Every structure is written in structure tokens, then in C-alpha cells.
């Protein structure tokens, strides 16, 4: 994580300030506000602002239910109920804003979540910093043989060394040519007065996809949990999952009850198809059900049994 | 504006609380937080929460522009620039949440703005309050003869009196039958133990469209300004415009610089079509341009001249 | 279902036309294009246009998977895979447009699905037709005692008769006063030349919520299935569910493979929470698990066992 | 534009097919359906499907206006009216779907338009093709001195030659190392049986941002026009503008009346701020107004006079 002195002192100043507010506050999240949490080799994520807390979810739900919820339930109970029954609108009433620094290929996955607001560093307007993601040796995974979009074993020996060398070398070379084309360095110092320098919006195309970019990213709590359920999942690519995992901790500090409900009903849940549910019903009734009798494809059947710890 | 004792004491408690926060604060908006502002005969609007201030817009823009904006401009200047050039994303980085009470026919217009979050009081779940909108005599306008969706002169005398009487009578009757169908009053007291009472989700269909409903409504600053530009406009129906006008004041307290820029570049601005711009260019060059020569329709031409204070 | 002669002959003309197109076609849906299907007492739904078919979903998925899907799977198999793994973007590549006529209180639920496009009949601009929804006697359900937003037994005898009488009477009276206020009937004939007539945008507030409105409604296939999974569900209010059920048949005609996958993986599926999945694993392993040991609330536990046909 | 033999014969087959449909058809657009239009050195854009035509916009508007529009206006007149008054919903009732191939840095700008549906080629799943964008010599522009995100003069001589050489060399080297890391070529042939090959999701990070990607992109007519108004504008980067210009022609074939209205009221229009409108009013009234008297900033004032062809 590489922050300039300037950035660090700005963060310190923000963290030192404090004002009185009548708004809902999340005390645990306040403690880490603005603070950068390192992710990957040069990335970070920090919470810039938030709106609402667990009680704000409850308050929004009570508007909908009117007099009906007066006596009924505790806050935690109501939050569980809402998540369990997919009553999503009260969770849309809270909002969180992050500052994230990540490699461009990660940003390209991330931006596919459209229900969020984004201000990204503009390489048309400014010069990109010289920072690239180079995987740690333990992350240099081979292509999975069984899953086209997955990873297999970690590469070893010469093959690993060569991959690392190429990644480093190519990123360096491309960046150094980027500066030459611009006729400027990252601090906007002109390199050679006799040349003009290529337009920034053009020169950027020479950078590699592991170059770091950064953005402000704001999202409501409902869509944030949807993002986390996809990106903190074991099928997500490691390089975005590590961001999601840090954000999962931030969710816990922001909204302890909602975090519990989310862990219980989303993250740890299991979805059965119609045929799958039928097989489980028959098994619980004492029947033995073979793959053929299940009506499911062999793969689906196998995956379901694995999920339910049933040996075949 | 009819708030129950319970609601009033809840509001008082919220307004009395205060916490320390490291977040951006908008001091003028803090002063009116939670406070209900009356609109129409029984409606209100109050700010429940907000995220960000003028500086947060600037901060988000500076992420995009990177090093490029270091020296350039004052905050107010940058906000003007952003609004003038329709750089909308920094304005999406702020958020505001309202509690609004309004007649159902107003809510039906309002909900057409889709980029917002809503929790509405549920008439499937709870019993609606006995509150209807009855226009003030000065608002009992006749149908406009020139504009199918506009108002003409205010009705007078008997016609006005009869309209008011019908509105009151029908709302009362429908509500009283609603209670009879439910076999319950607004406080959920059973009326007659020998009857079952119709399901709430059905009984509600007997209410008139001037019955009051309420909701929490949350929106980002960019979409909020879009809402205001349409609904605080003179072509908007009076009954929604009065809400927008109160919110315009709230915007001013929340974001003084953004409010100024919005007044200057959106609210007070004039849009010329390609042909209209051409006519203005010729006129400024000293030419006289007739309606025929303008290439515009007679109506468009007339409207443009009126906007530009040119007499024909 | 009340269509004017004019509308019926327009529909006939549209159904008689045919053009050659190079676009993907859905032959079964073509057969019912423009045709109104009656719903409730005066409502209808008809398909006005569509884009794509099952093959278009597959084609979009193959762009994403590139060379990888060449050999792999049949179209039906790929569609199953996509739905099972919640790969939603290929389903967003198809679109359908409906013309729907429904009571206003149904329209108010429907519009909460924001990811759709809507053009509704404007009561600011035009005079509403004299058509109200009056439930069939078999739908006059009492309020459920166990579920605040549900229905219990059907009302009988005098209570039922009185409810029906009130619904009819109030709708009639309110509409007749609406005409009086407007000083015009539904065909825009002036009633009394000596009066001005109240503005349409005001008079409409006197109508009851069972008055019929209509709109064009366009949605992509992914969001359409989300709508159907909520509104064709047994917890949805009967008056919107009957529309969803007709649309479910239309989906079947439009996209036979997608419809099958949707029935298998969404409609008929079962979701287990983390604790629920744990209980099922233990039961399948031969353990007896009591409610207390499950860690679930008594209600959740009971509901899960009922879903899985396990008697307690 | 590089299409494989396989793709070309698929396109030919699609263009040869034709079915009867009852749906609205756009005859001029049918003629170019599926046909790839070359953009930049290896890119293309082609229309894959569409829903609706000019008449469908009108039809949706007439639902809203009900009886009110019976006599009023021709289709073209109504479309002009709708665009002029920013009645956007009828334009949302039409939809178009494209297949686009473009450099990744262009795709990154493009994806910021969130109200669209996207299926992009997945570099996690498949191997990217060896195709990079190298600007034509006439597009090798220097950085603008006055506009941080603009272009100045075209680079000449040695500087131009060196830039081109670097762009070509770096893209080639990075791609060749990409293949080495993968231990596979673009056709998925293994290069060296003794090695495993890095996971695709990792190897892709070594590619440069001028590598071509492709996607299906679907959008409604309203948001399509918004995209065009920003991206066919002279301030847009050349490399995305050339795509927008081809799409502008496609819009003309699809929707001749809407295209005319769009040219008149959006593309060619001029927006005046409140102060700007005031200055124009005074000038048309015969006053001379200096920059100081205008209340505008010097830059705004200068820009406005230039737009209105007024010499200072």
C-alpha cells in the first residue's frame, strides 16, 4: 500500500476531526473511518462515509408495517425476518462509500455491478502512477483442468520464476514507454523540451492490465450484500475476493445485526432445485435415491450430495 | 399536519440526541434534521438522514481529475464547472433521506422517479389513517382550455362549493365504509364481534385517491436535482410542486454551493434547439427573422421569443 | 374485459399484418401477439412486442464464454447451467412489452419493480373510464388471523353482501361525482355549458383505488423472471397473482427452455439457511435433531420441516 | 476488421434467413442486420436485434395521452413534441442490441453508461485474440496545452515514429508472453507438454489496454440517445466517437423521425445558463453587455459569445 506523504497527512487530519451530529452513528465503523486497509501488494480500501445503522433498517421497515410492528419483534429478530423473506427495500435505506485502489483487471470485474456510484481516476486527464500488481508466489496458480475459469495447483520452480519475471519486466517496460510517449513523468515533469508528448488519452493504452487505478465507490446496503455474496464467494477470483473479505469485516463493524443475518441466510445458505428438494424429501423419508431416479443431471446430483455431506 | 403525540415525542428525542462523528457534516441541515415541515393540509416532509456536503462533491471530483485539479479552482468554481458540463458522477456521491406524507395521487406521480429507494406504509399490512387532501379554495382550478394537463381560473361560487362538498363527502363515506368492511377502526379496535372483517389488502380498494400515505424516500444528489428540476417547475402539478419547493430549501441548507450552481445552470437556464440557436445568431447579427424563415413551427417560434423577451 | 370497437378493430388489423424479418422469432408467441387475455372482471394483458428467443440467451452466453463453449452443451443444458449458477446477464439480452389493464391498487404494487419501462394512461391529461374492480364472491376473503398481510376464509351471507354493496355503491358515486366535477363524461362531452369544470388533475383524486388504469410495460427477461418469482408466488396478493399467472403462460410460449429452467431452479426451489442446511445434513446422517438443538427459531424450524415433509 | 471464416459464414446464414412476424419492423435497419461495420483498425459494430420503430414511440405516447391525442398531431410532430419537452418514457419502449469489438480502454469508457445490458468476452474463461489497436498516423495527437483531457496537433517525424514503434512492440511482446504464461496459443493449442500453464484469469493481466475485446450491448432508445449525445460529441475521445458516429447512422435507418428530432433538439441545441439567457435578452433588446456586466466568469462569457457567433 503506497500512499504519498500528502495523502497520509490528509487522512490523519480527517481522522482527527470530529463534529456533533444528530444522525444515526455506527460507533465501530467510526473508529476505522478514512483508515486505509492494505489489499494485495499496492492496493487498499477505506471507508469514506456511511449513512444509517442497524436501527435505520428497522426504522424503514416499521414505516412499511405501520402500527403492525409495534409490539412484535426485537430489532435483530426483525432484521432476520427481512433478510429471510427477501424484503430488500429497508436495506436500500443505508449507504456506504469507499475509496479503493485496485489493479485495472479487478476494476473491470467490479464495475459490472451497475447499481453503484463511481468516480474513477481519469487517465485521460492525469498521469497514472507507476504501480502494478505482481502476484505473491503462492498465488501463481496453474489453469484448472476441470473448471475453465478456475485455478489449479500453484506453479513451481522455473515456470513460476519465468512468469514472475515476465510480469514484472513487461509492466516496467510498458510504463517506461508510457512516460516516454507522454514526454513526462508521474509528477508531470517534462522529460525533453524538444518534444511535444503524446496525448494522455492515447498514451494510456500502452499500460498493462495489472496497473493500479483507484476510485470512490458508493452503494446501498442491499446491493452491497449482493456484491459480497458474489465476490466473497469461493468461486470469485482471488484478486477481487480479498477486497470483498475486507469489506465483509467493515460490514460487521457497521451493521452487527445485519451482518449476522447475512451470514446466516445468504452466505451460509444452500439452494435446492425443485428436483433436488424432492430428493431430499425422499431421503429424509427413508428412501434411497439413485442419481438416475433423481431426475437430475449426474453433475448436479453429485454436487448436491457433496453440499449435504452425503456419501455415495 | 397531523402527527400523533407518540410521533412528536419520538421526533423530539431524535432532535435532542447528538453524537460525535468523523463524517462530513452540513451544519445548517443538522439544525432542521427530523423536523416536520407542513405541506398541503395534512402532509409533511422531513429530512431523516444525509451523506456528504459540498466538499464531498469536490472530493469525489478530485479523485477523477487526480493531480490535475491541485491548484486549479475553488470549491464553488469546481462545482459550477461540474454542473455546467454535466459531469454528474460527483453529485451521485451524496445522498439524502426523507420522510414524506402525501396524498396517494401525488405518490403515484412521485414514484415514477425510479432511481430512488422507497419504503411505503403498507395498506396490506396496516390500516390507513383517516386523512384526505381537500384543496384550499384558491387551488380549486378549472380545467385549462389551452393545455390539457393544466389549470385555468379558480372556480367560484356554487361550482366551487359543490366540488368541495363532494370531495369531502365522498372521502368520508368511503373511509367510513372501509372501517365497516374491516370491522375495525384506525386503531385496530374491532367494531362488531359477530363479524370477521374483510382482508386489509382488499378493503383498501374502497379508499379515494386523496387519502394520505407516507414513505421513506432516499435519493442521490444528482437524481434529486433532476427530480427538483421537473417537479419544482411551473408545469408540474401544484400538489407535488409544493413538496419540491420545500425540498429546494432543504437543498440550500444542505449544499449551499451546489444549490447556487443548480439555480444558475439548471433551474434558470434556457435550452435552444438547433433552429432556435440559428435564429438567435441571426438576430444578434442584426437580421430580422420571421417565423417562416426560422424553420420552426409557429408555436415553437412564439414560445422561444417569449422566453427571450422579444416582442413580435 | 371491455375493449371498445375501435380498439378491437385496431387489434384485428395488427394481428392480420405480417412482415418479413431477419430477427429471431418465437413462433408460439407470434400466435398470440396483440391478443388480449382477460384478467379479473375488466382487466386484460396482451403482448405487444418482444426481442429474442431461447437461442438469443444462448448466443449472448457464448459471446462471454468465447471458444470455451463450442463443444460443451446443448442449448437447453446451457440455459439450465446459467439459471442454476445465477449468471443473469444473458437473460437481460431479451425483452418483452405488454399492454396491461388493472385496478389502481394493483398498479401501485406493480410499479415497485423499478427495472422496467412504463407508459401509463394519464389522468391529468385524459378522463378515466368508468370501470372498477369488484371482487367475485369467492374472493371476498376475511383478514387472516395469523398473517397480517394475508387472507382467511371467504366471507359469507350478509357480511359478504354488504361488502359488495358498499364497494359497488362507493365506486359508482365517486365516479359520478368525478364527472360532475369535470363537467364532462368519459367521452369528453360537456354536461352543463354554464359551468367551467374542475381541472382533470384535481378531479381524479375523487376516484377509488379499484378504478382501472392501463399501461405499456416493458422489461428484460431476467427482471421479468424476478417479477414472476415474487408475484406468481402464493404469498402475493390474489389480484396481482392472476396477472402473473397469465404472464407465466406467455413466458412458456416465448421461451420454452428458459421456462423449464425457471420452473426447476427458481419457482420450485427451496432455500435453506446456514443452520437449516446443517440440520438437514445431520438428519441425512441419521441424527434426530430437535428444535432446540437446531439453533433456529421455533417458527423457522417448523416452516423448514413442513417444506421438507418431515413430521414432528 | 478481422472476422474468422466461421463468423463470416454464420453472419451470412443469419442474413439469409427470414421469418414472418406480426411485430413492428424497421425496413432500412433490416437491410443491415447482422452486418459488421468496420471501426478503427480491427473493430466493428453490428446490429443484432431491435424492438420497435418510430410508430412504437408514438403508440406508447398515445397510451399515456389517451383520448387526448386522437386528432392532434402527425407522428413526426408528436415525436418532436416529446423530445422537445423531455417526455422520455415513450422512447424507453424501444430497444436495440449490438455486437461491438473495441479496444479495452474504449470498453472502459463505454461501460460507464450503466443503463444497458452487457455480455463481454471473458478472459477468465477464454484466451484473448492477438489484436491490438494501433492509431493511424493522423490520430497520433499531442497532448493539448489548453485542455487536460484533449488533443493538440498531430505528432510528426521521429517522435511519431517512435511512439508507433513502442505501441506495436509492447503490445506484441506482452501478448507473446501472455501465450508463454498460458502455455497455449489463441487456438488453445498447448505449447509445451512439460509445463502447466498459468491460469487464464491471471495471465490476462499482462495484456496492454489496446487489446481488443468484444461484447453484446443492449440499450433502450432513450438511453441510447443519451449515450450518443455524449459520445458523438466533439469533446468525446476520437476512439469512442467513431463508434458513436456509426451508431448515429444506424439510428437514422432504425428511426428516421426520431433521428430528425434528436438532431434538432439535442445534438444541435444550445443551453444558456440563467445569466447567459439574461445577457442574450439584453443584447436582443439592443443593449451592449460587457463581460463584467454579464455576471458570468470571463471564460463562460467568451464561450457563450463564440457559440452565438458574436464577435467581442
If you had to describe this structure to a student in words, what would you say it looks like?
Four copies of one chain form a homotetramer. With 312 residues, chain A is of the alpha+beta class. Chain A folds into three domains: 1-131 and 210-269, Gyrase A, domain 2 (2-Layer Sandwich), CATH 3.30.1360; 134-209, no CATH class; 274-307, no CATH class. Chain A contains 13 helices and nine strands. Chain A has helices at residues 5-16, 27-32, 54-65, 75-84, 104-110, 157-182, 200-203, 221-231, 238-254, 256-267, 274-284, 291-294, 298-307; strands spanning 19-21, 37-39, 43-51, 95-103, 117-120, 141-143, 151-154, 212-220, 270-272. In chain A, the strands form two sheets. Chain A has a five-stranded antiparallel beta sheet. In chain A, strands 6-7 form a two-stranded antiparallel ribbon. In chain A, β6 (141-143) and β7 (151-154) form a beta hairpin. In chain A, α4 runs parallel beside α10. The first copy, chain A, is flat, with a radius of gyration of 24 Å.
Lay out the secondary structure.
Four copies of one chain form a homotetramer.
Chain A: H1 5-16, E1 19-21, H2 27-32, E2 37-39, E3 43-51, H3 54-65, H4 75-84, E4 95-103, H5 104-110, E5 117-120, E6 141-143, E7 151-154, H6 157-182, H7 200-203, E8 212-220, H8 221-231, H9 238-254, H10 256-267, E9 270-272, H11 274-284, H12 291-294, H13 298-307
Antiparallel strand pairs in A: 2-3, 3-4, 4-8, 5-8, 6-7
Helix pairs in contact in A: 3-4, 4-10, 9-10
